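Residues pack. Consider this:
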Amino acid sequence: MSDTAESRKFDVPAYVHELGVQARAAARAMGRAESCAKNTALNAIADAIVADQDRLKAENHKDLQAGRQKGLDSALLDRLKLTDARIEAMAEGLRQISALPDPVGAISGLEYRPSGIQVGRMRVPLGVIGIIYESRPNVTADAAALCLKSGNACILRGGSEALHSNQAIARCIEQGLGKAGLPSTAVQVVATTDRAAVGELLRLDKFIDVIVPRGGKGLIERVTGESKIPVIKHLHGVCHTYIDDYADIDKAVKVAFNAKTQRYGTCNTMETLLVAASIAERVLPILASQYQAEGVELRGCERTCVILDNIKPASDADWDEEYLAPILSIRLVDDLDAAMDHIDKHGSRHTDVIITENLARARRFLREVDSSSVMVNASSRFADGFEYGLGAEIGISTDKLHARGPVGLEGLTTLKYIVLGDGHIRT
């Protein structure tokens, strides 16, 4: 996995086809792998990542330097950077996944039918998962870990901006697989930056069972448009926080500030703040002062601009924008229904939050807002597989079929019917 595709002088279609053949063979071995072998691999990968921390940072530094030379913005550079804390978080995510129950082989709903047979459902791996992602090298470890634990093989294609980081992590994964006696081809990290490799992967329906894109809207639109393989995706994260007129002010300020400023370049960061008009004059000046002290640019509707000085008027386009930057749109709404109407029209079905002490309104919001994560009195930044107890996530799905929200182990498996009989025949 350490050699680059370019150094081996081969054509991309043949290379990608070879990856598919190897992944399909590895998927059979992973499907029958025992939990202890998978857990051994995960813990060995975690140990290798910690042991190789200095080398990982050195390789990551090459990517950061190249990114600055290419003019990558601060949000992308932040997503690309591997700090000591992020490297330790990668290792901890692997260990957490190893400690989770293995979903493969679990049988549910086993019942006797009038004929005497027993019918149930067994959880099984999807097979081969192709993952196409940008910038964040920690995705390489997270994706590999979730695929391994759920008994799948995977082909990982990271962005060119993280090539050195991803290949360094790939070497740690290879070490861990070897220590567990699992095939090294269970995780294959594409070793070429040629964009043609993405197109070839999307046509590899003979070998790949599902594609998961993680990255910007352009990447996900391309994958969705070109793929011959089912896709688990979300296009973008236009997340809202609605401060209801029954909100606790201190609680609302704390949550809304965190939802925007804890980290800017993530899909679960709040991009639009909705505030009940009756409470706006009490809460907005406090929040605006904190946001502006943090360097957040505020853009408001007409009624917001009356309350707050020195903010920019919001355009129609702002309500649909995923900034991934220290910019926030603010809109005053008359009531809960108006807030939910705005979310329905402008939201991306990712994560939406209500701040309220009114239980009836909280329940309405939970029931009626059609998003993959809906929260009460909590920051949207919690919409994350690690925070949900999944150990890590392979992505967040805003689709409604198969998997929705953060996709962890269970989302990378499917169910098949099983029938148990004792010489039963149908009459």
Residues 12-31 form the longest helix (20 residues). The CA atoms of residues 231 and 335 lie 37 Å apart. The radius of gyration is 24 Å. DSSP finds 14 helices and 16 strands in the chain.
